[in-house]
Amino acid sequence: MRILHLDTGREMRGGQWQVLRLHRGLLGCGHESQLLARQGSPLLEQGADVLHPARLPRISRRFDIVHAHDARSHMLGALLSWAPLVVSRRVAFPVRTSAVSRWKYRKPGLFLAVSHFVAGELTRAGIGERRIEVVYDGVPIPPEPAVGGAILVPDTIDPAKGLALAEAAARRAGIALKRSANLEADLPGAKALVYLSRSEGLGSGILLGMAYGLTVIASNVGGIPELIQDGANGILVPNEEEAIASAFARIDPALGRAARKTVMARFTVDHMVRSTITAYAQVLARV
Fold first, then answer.
1. For residue 40, is it left (φ>0), alpha (ψ between -120 and 50) or beta?
2. Res 111 pLDDT > 80
3. How many domains, in total, are found in the chain?
């Protein structure tokens, strides 16, 4: 297969890591894959080419599938692609209902929802189940689990991500948190990860922590419960300071070991790549 990926993100966040892993995985499986990213994107440093919208109609003719990975590239693909369009949907909030949005959401042949929760939002927007497939994120498995004592919290300016709430709960519990601006660098020296959010499609940062064998304390929202079973492979909490403070006492290496096994069984990069290839084949069979 020949797949053209579009991503217009400005930062290297979870979605950008996923498209990069998918692109490289497809190449490793012998498929032709090209990744286009906006000028100035960190993806360009990872081998992506610059996305020039005016050239997209001509370029897309060479590919079997155009795969859009964010909202802006979804619009570009809907307007300018000559190949069947596949769109990844990673966010948990409801689909907009404007006339433009309704038109845009009619164009893709298939939506790849990052969780069953996200798939439900698409269904509620009137998109038929035949046009939705759930493809979970995949993360690399570190050769060895983490060995350290830090309790990490992602360092973010996004108020929806719960940094202030996590730090307030830690103060209440007498726990020291370490802010992390680079989870992949800090996870090997940690024992736990606090990942709070008002809304979450899935949470690739959670998967990274689980892959390292950390106890993850996460908000019981969106697609997160599809990753974590409370008390089995992690800790789910309501977004309430007292409940989060109490959760620190439940940090347990056994939960981390179970979390690592969960990722190995269901959420590797290989799982994600193979599931996506199967979804592409469904789209092409309908053309």
1. left
2. yes
3. 2
Q: What is the pLDDT of residues 227-268, one digit of tens each?
A: 999 999 999 999 999 999 999 999 999 999 999 999 999 999
238, with CB counted inside 10 A (0-12, 13-18, 19+), is exposed
The pLDDT tens digits of the residues spanning 169-220 come to: 999 999 999 999 999 899 999 999 999 999 999 999 999 999 999 999 999 9
Q: Model confidence at 159, in pLDDT bands (50, 70, 90)?
A: confident
Instruction: Please give the angle made by the CA atoms of 72, 21 and 157, to the nearest 5 degrees.
Output: 55
Residues 129 and 157 both lie in one domain: no
Contact 236, 227 (CB under 8 A): no
Give the type of residue at 254. Answer: A
Is residue 182 domain-shared with residue 81, that is, in the same domain?
no
Parent domain of 214: 150-266
CA distances from 82 to 18, 65, 66, 105, 256 (A): 24, 9, 8, 16, 46
What CATH number is attached to the domain comprising 238?
3.40.50.2000
pLDDT at residue 65 tops 90: yes
Q: What is the mean pLDDT of residues 108-137?
A: 97
Q: Is residue 208 part of a domain?
A: yes
Q: Clarify whether residues 189 and 107 are in a common domain.
A: no
Whether this prediction's pTM lies above 0.90 is answered by: yes
Rounded to whole angstroms, the Cα distance separating 283 from 2 reads 13
Tally the residues of the chain: 287
